[in-house]
Specification:
CATH class: Alpha Beta
Helix content: 25-40%
Distance between the termini: 73 Å
CATH superfamily: Gcn5-related N-acetyltransferase (GNAT)
Strand order of the largest sheet: 1-2-3-4-5
Largest sheet: 5 strands, mixed
CATH architecture: 3-Layer(aba) Sandwich
Strand content: 15-25%
Number of domains: 1
Shape: globular
Structural class: alpha+beta
Number of helices: 5
CATH topology: Aminopeptidase
Radius of gyration: 17 Å
Length: 163
Amino acid sequence: MSTPPASYTVQQLSADDGQLMTALLGVFGEAFDNPVAYGASRPRPTYFRQLLGSDYFIALAAREGSQVIGGLAAYELKKFEQERSEIYIYDLAVAAEHRRRGAATALIRELQRIGAERGAYVIFVQADPPDAPAVALYSKLGVREDVLHFDIPVPPVPPPQTS
């Protein structure tokens, strides 16, 4: 069975694309089977405007017509040891019915283009071993490194003392 030709476009979201970012959150919630994390406390429009207009956050959406079928969220990290940056893909997902048609690869290729424009030297991403499709995709596009990941909690700030 052959894969149908791609009928989607990939675009970088800008400060005025809050509605597309909201749609992308829906795709992430469904793809990661975690609609609460991606939908229960969505940011206000002003937050999206600030985030999407920043120089450190990159959001890409794959669209079929007006429907967001996938996308990625990434952060550009300016390095301190050299004048360069690296880009971290925080989330990447494609809606189940649109997978295996090249959308994820197209999203990463567009991020590579953006990274080159910004002077980045590498893009990195984390994949969990049980997620075989993600591991296969990233193995096809990059060099695998086995690392450990640690979440270090940030303690809450105590409320100010009143006298």
